[in-house]
Design a protein that fits this description.
- The complex is a heterodimer of chains A (324) and B (171).
- Chain A is an all-alpha fold and 324 residues long.
- Chain A has helices spanning 3-10, 12-31, 34-65, 72-106, 111-139, 155-161, 167-175, 178-206, 215-219, 222-242, 244-248, 251-272, 275-280, 290-311.
- Chain B has 8 helices and 2 strands; from the N terminus they run H-H-H-H-H-H-H-H-E-E.
- Chain B has helices spanning 5-12, 14-21, 28-53, 68-89, 91-95, 98-121, 129-155, 157-160, and strands at 163-165, 168-169.
- The radius of gyration of chain B is 19 Å and the shape is elongated.
- The chains are: A mainly alpha (324), B mainly alpha (171).
C-alpha cells in the first residue's frame, strides 16, 4: 500500500459522507425529526474527522505520482480545491459538535446552529464535489478527451477557483515566517493543555480517583477541552500544509493520526451507546460503571500516545520510504 | 557581552554530549517528552482549578479540588528536573536567550500564584465555597495569564535563540 492507494481509499469518505450527511439533515426538516437531525450531526462529526487523513494522504499521493505524463497544473488545482473544501467540512463538523452539545443540554440544537449547519454543509458538499471532480481529472483523461493536461474551467469553476488558495502561496504563508510558526506551535501546546486538563480529569474521575467529585459537573469542562481540540486540529493542519514533507514520511505522525481517529471511535462508544447517560448520574462517592471505566482508560492511554507520538515526529522524521 | 566560557566547558562534558547526541530512546527527545508531560500536569490541573474558581462547572464542589495540587507540585517537580537536564544539554542556547529568562519569570510568578491559591483559598477549611471563590477570583485570572505566558515563551525558545551551541549560531 502506498500513499496513492491510501488516498484513493480514503477520499470516498468526505465526498460520500457529506452527501449522506446533508441528505439526512435535509430530510430531518420534513418531519421535524430530532433523531434524524442528531444522526446527521453525528455523520458530520465523523466525516470531519475522517476527512483529515483523506486530506493528508493527498500530499503523499502527489509525491507518489508526480512526474512526466502527470499534469502539475491539474494537481495544483485539485490541491487548491481541497485546501478550501476541507475548512468547510471541518467547520460543519465543529458546528455539529456544538449542536450535539446543545441537544444534550437543551434537547435540541439552537435555531442559529441549525441555520449555520444548513449553510455550511451545503457549501461543503458543493466544494467537496468539486474537489472530487478535480481529483478525478488528474488521472482520468477519458472524462475530458483532448484536455488531458490543461486546466479548463466552466463558469462555476472559474468563480470558485477565485477562493481556492494557490498551494505554493499557502505553503509560503504558513511556514516562511518563523514567528507565525512559533505562534501556531504555542497555540498547539495550549490546546494540548486544555485537553489534558479537562478530558484527563473527567477520565481520571470515571476510573475511580478523586471520588469526592460528582461526574456531571466535570463533564461541563469538556467544551474547553473541545476548544483545545479545535485549536489543535487547525494548527496541526496548517503545520502539515506548511511543511508536509516533514510529516508525510514520519511513521509516528501517522500513528498519532491513527490514535486521534481511535479517540473518535472511543468518544462515539461513550456517547452513542448509552454509557454517557449512566455516567452522568454518578454522584460523589459512587463508582462509575465498568464499561465507562474501560472507555476512560482507553481515552487516557490514547491521549498519552498522541503526546508521545507528537513529540517524536521531529527525531523520527524519515521512517517511511520516499518515492525514488 | 561575550558568551561565558563555562557554557563551552559544560557542553564538552561527556554527560552533556550524551544528552544531545545519544541515539538512545532515553536521550534528548525523551527528556523533552517528560518535560511536555510535566507541563500538561502542572498547567492542566492548574487550569481546571482556575476555571472552576472563575465559574466553569459550578456544580463541582471546590474543596475536593485541593487534591489537584499534588498533581501540580508533581508536574512542577518533574519539569524542574527535566528542565535542568535540558539546560545541561544546551546551556549556551538557553542562557544567552532573553526569552528563556522571560519563561522562568512567568513560571516563578505562576508558581507563586499557585501557592497563594493553595494557602489563601484552600488553606482555610472553614471558608464557605462562595468565600473561597471570592478570595480566589483575581489570583485565578493571574494564574491563567502567567501560565499562558510561560507556555508561549517556552514554545518560542527555538525561534528566539541566537546560538545552538558555544560558537555555533542557531540555523
Amino acid at each position: 500500500m502506498n500513499f496513492a492507494h491510501l488516498h484513493l481509499l480514503l477520499n470516498h469518505f468526505p465526498i460520500i459522507g457529506m452527501i449522506v450527511g446533508v441528505g439526512l439533515f435535509l430530510v430531518s426538516f420534513f418531519d421535524k425529526n430530532e433523531d434524524l437531525r442528531r444522526g446527521s450531526y453525528i455523520v458530520f462529526v465523523g466525516i470531519a474527522l475522517l476527512s483529515i487523513p483523506a486530506f493528508l494522504s493527498g500530499f503523499g499521493a502527489q509525491q507518489a505520482i508526480q512526474g512526466p505524463g502527470v499534469s502539475d497544473a491539474l494537481i495544483n488545482r485539485h490541491e487548491g480545491s481541497a485546501l478550501l473544501s476541507l475548512w468547510f467540512v471541518e467547520a460543519t463538523g465543529v458546528l455539529a459538535v456544538i449542536g450535539l452539545w446543545q441537544s444534550q443540554r437543551l434537547s435540541h440544537p439552537s435555531h442559529g446552529n441549525v441555520l449555520a449547519v444548513l449553510v455550511l454543509s451545503l457549501l461543503a458538499v458543493g466544494l467537496i464535489a468539486r474537489t472530487g471532480n478535480t481529483g478525478g481529472d488528474i488521472r482520468h483523461p477519458e472524462i475530458h478527451p483532448g484536455e488531458a493536461t490543461t486546466v479548463v474551467e466552466g463558469p462555476l469553476g472559474s468563480f470558485i477557483s477565485h477562493f481556492e488558495p494557490s498551494p505554493e502561496k499557502f505553503v509560503q504563508l504558513v511556514s516562511v515566517n518563523k514567528w507565525w510558526w512559533g505562534f501556531m506551535m504555542a497555540m498547539h501546546f495550549i490546546g494540548l493543555i486544555l485537553i489534558v486538563g479537562t478530558v484527563g480529569l473527567l477520565d481520571v474521575r470515571i476510573m475511580g480517583f478523586m471520588k469526592q467529585l460528582p461526574v456531571a459537573p466535570l463533564h461541563r469542562f469538556l467544551p474547553w477541552g473541545l476548544a483545545g481540540l479545535g485549536i489543535n486540529i487547525v494548527t496541526g493542519l496548517l503545520a502539515f500544509v506548511g511543511q508536509s514533507d516533514n510529516y508525510i514520511y514520519s511513521g509516528v505522525f501517522w500513528l498519532k493520526m491513527l490514535s486521534l481517529l481511535l479517540l473518535g471511535v472511543n468518544a462515539a462508544a461513550f456517547y452513542l451507546t448509552g454509557i454517557f447517560g449512566r455516567v452522568e448520574t454518578v454522584a460523589a462517592g459512587e463508582d462509575a460503571p465498568v464499561l465507562a471505566r474501560f472507555v476512560a482508560a482507553t481515552s487516557l492511554f490514547l491521549w498519552f500516545a498522541v503526546i508521545v507520538f507528537g513529540r517524536y515526529i521531529q527525531p523520527l522524521g524519515s521512517t517511511l520510504p520516499r518515492p525514488n | 557581552m561575550a558568551v561565558p566560557e563555562i557554557f563551552n566547558t559544560i557542553e564538552q562534558t561527556a554527560f552533556s554530549t550524551w544528552l544531545r547526541e545519544s541515539p538512545s530512546f532515553f536521550g534528548f527527545y525523551f527528556i523533552l517528552l517528560i518535560h511536555t508531560i510535566g507541563m500538561s500536569l502542572v498547567v492542566g490541573a492548574n487550569a481546571v482549578v482556575d476555571l472552576r474558581i472563575l465559574g466553569v462547572g459550578s456544580g463541582l464542589p471546590l474543596q475536593p479540588l485541593k487534591r489537584l495540587f499534588y498533581v501540580m507540585w508533581t508536574g512542577l517537580g518533574i519539569n524542574i528536573a527535566s528542565g535542568l537536564l535540558l539546560l545541561a544539554a544546551y546551556p549556551t542556547k538557553s542562557l544567552t536567550n532573553l526569552d528563556f529568562y522571560v519563561k522562568l519569570s512567568f513560571i516563578a510568578l505562576a508558581a507563586i500564584t499557585m501557592w497563594k491559591i493553595y494557602v489563601q483559598v484552600f488553606g482555610d477549611a472553614s471558608l464557605s465555597e462562595a468565600a473561597m471563590i471570592a478570595k480566589g477570583k483575581a489570583l485565578a485570572k493571574w494564574s491563567l495569564f502567567f501560565w499562558l505566558g510561560a507556555v508561549s515563551a517556552g514554545r518560542l525558545l527555538s525561534e528566539t535563540s541566537k546560538y545552538l551551541l558555544y560558537g555555533v549560531a542557531n540555523r
